[in-house]
Amino acid sequence: MDMLRLGADYLRGARSRIIDAESALRRSDYPEVVRYSQEAVELSLKACLRIVGIEYPKAHDVSDELKFNASKFPTWFSTEIEELARISTELATKRAASMYGIEAAGKGPSDLFDKEEAALSMREAKLVYHNSEKLYKELKGR
Fold first, then answer.
1. Residues ≥6 apart with Cβ < 8 Å to 71
2. 3-class SS at 135?
3. Whether residue 94 has pLDDT greater than 60
4. pLDDT one-digit tens code per residue, 112-134
5. Between 115-140 and 30-51, two packed helices, what is the crossing angle to 10 degrees?
6. What DSSP string runs through 50-65?
7. Angle CA 46–6–142, to nearest 5
8. d(CA 8, CA 4)
9. Which of 76, 73, 71, 21 is nearest to 47 (CA)?
């Protein structure tokens, strides 16, 4: 299997999720922004793991795998891993609530997420995506 090609596919998917998040933000559909942002982060980071040959866990949050394998990435990327991992963990914890709300509290998704949180989620997803894309381009050029 060509890991670079697979990573590129994941990055294309991540970019599509960012486009979807931007559209949802324009529509004021804030829970969807959070969900699409989480998916973009997940795909971006799984692309990073794939392109350096790491089998990632079948989970939404791959932060532990990133940290454990930091030495397998270029130095510039390794210095970003703590922040990328934080973003992954935070958005993964919001994933279910952005889709279903918190039924036990009687709150739907739109009760939980506002414009500010949605915009932050999207900015962070873009940060993760851009770092992931930079890593892909660097490793593709080798």
1. 78
2. helix
3. yes
4. 999 999 999 999 999 999 999 99
5. 20
6. HHTTPPPPSSS--HHH
7. 95
8. 6
9. 73
Q: Amino acid identity of 89? A: T
Catalogue all structural domains in the chain, each as residue range(s) with its CATH number.
Answer: 3-140 (1.20.120.330)
Instruction: For residue 38, give every residue at least 6 positions away whose Cβ sits within 8 Å of its Cβ, in sequence order, or none.
Output: 60, 91, 92, 94, 95, 98, 121, 125
26, burial (CB in 10 Å: exposed 0-12, middle 13-18, buried 19+) = exposed
Backbone φ/ψ region at 54: left (φ over 0), alpha (ψ -120 to 50), beta: beta
Collect all residues with Cβ–Cβ distance below 8 Å to 103 and sequence separation of at least 6.
none
Beta-carbon count within 10 A of 123 CB: 11
Enter the pTM of the model.
Answer: 0.95
